[in-house]
Amino acid sequence: MRRTKWEEYQKDIADDKYYYARSCIRQNFFPGSEKAFLDILRNDLGKDIFDDPLHTSCTGIGYHSDIVPFETIMTVVARQFALMHEAGYENFTSSCITSFGIYTEILNTWEEFPETEERTRENLFKATGRELVKPKSLAHTSDVIFHLRKEIAERMKRPLVNALTGEPLRVVEHIGCHYAKIFPKSGIGGSEFPYVLAGMIESWGGEVVDYPERRHCCGFGFRNYLVQANRGYSVANSQKKLESMAPYRPDFIVCNCPGCSMFLDKWQYTIAEMEGTTYGAHGHGIPVLTYEEMAGLVLGYDPWELGMQMHAVDVEPLLEKMGVEYDPSTKYLGPKGKYIGKPAAAAVNCSAGVTLYDIKK
Amino acid sequence: MASVNFGFGISKPRVIDIDRNNLRKSDEILLEMPELQTCIGCGSCTASCTAGNLTSFNFRKVHALVRRGEYAGAYEEMNKCMLCGKCRLLCPRGINTRGVVMLIKRKLGDF
Ligand code: SF4
Ligand code: SF4
Hints:
The structure holds two protein chains of two kinds.
Chain A: E1 18-21, H1 26-29, H2 31-44, E2 49-51, H3 60-64, H4 70-86, E3 91-94, H5 97-112, H6 114-128, E4 137-140, H7 141-147, H8 149-154, E5 170-174, H9 177-180, H10 196-203, E6 207-208, H11 223-226, H12 231-245, E7 252-255, H13 258-275, E8 288-290, H14 291-298, H15 316-322, H16 357-360
Chain B: H1 24-32, H2 44-48, H3 50-54, H4 59-67, H5 74-78, H6 86-90, H7 97-108
Bound molecules: iron/sulfur cluster (SF4) (2 copies).
């Protein structure tokens, strides 16, 4: 297979003036990532991006769990588009892969069935008095970072290189299923050759790891984890991937989906506690980053400002490899210096006992 | 180790691993009846099966599993066949399916 196959699958991504739709779960599990995205776009790259307090959840989790009907979610999505138009924007970008899949699915439904679009337009007007105006372009936020990867590379402070050996860092990229497996045309590189994260890694000096289960799902799949009895299936999927990637000794994993980054990170904790198995070097887990965190590190952001203390698998081994200067004693201090609490020792982090972080406590 | 009980375990995969299965019996069967290799898995045999309409017997499933080295319970399953031969009339590959039933029973009697 030619390495440039992905180039045949392209999509239009706007250069500037984005309307930003946040994710529900990311703000809990990777709370620094969305802020980092806004900071990178506004402060580093000088782009116009509108973070609208009026928009709501896309209700995707409810939809995929058979709680929210399709009619309802279409109206909710129509409202987001109406808000975007009212704010004077036409390039919609969503932070969540599930939302991105939902928006793609609904825009396609409206294209195939114009009468459904009309019905949604009517429902929206009756419910809120707003008018539906469809976006000119729809992109996931990882598409936007991919699109701007060269501009980021120009401002790069720390490449994805092992500072000790000078070798490129070995990175596993994991793409959310709802990014391009639903509508292959909606993703860069389609569903078979997704290049959105690989492109960032290669432009910033890293090396992409190819491994047998690279395109396997992380196991998130709403219904699988919502019901406790099904979680064994969910964790088994992550385990399958981790077992497959471990022999390639990746330095870290990067994901573009809220669910994937959460599960590949937290299931490592679970597997270590249940079975005592870890997949990284020296008995540690493999750190899992969001692409915003990766971009943030490359641009020289402070890891704690990026929210990397919220990970289940400690990121310090990676920071040391990259030569990132960080203050261990401020890891568990919030933005105003307030102590935010420290997780219990975990097998995935080799159960470190009392550490430097306890000093500030 | 199993130190923490989260209220669920880690499911084991149910994939058939041909590299690990013992394919000796399967090879013997295919040697005696090479035409079985031309099976396209259409399921006509199962759809037309008299026994399958009355019991949970699924002929295609059993011979497909046997070819992949999954022999457990195959003999008992094949005993549900009443040898009516309807499947043989329908098989688009002209496989002697009734012969397959007999062959599997002969080869796997001790499994
Ligand atoms: S010969 Fe056996 S397998 Fe074939 S249709 Fe009859 S009962 Fe079913
Ligand atoms: S009818 Fe013939 S080809 Fe079709 S599944 Fe049965 S044996 Fe195979």
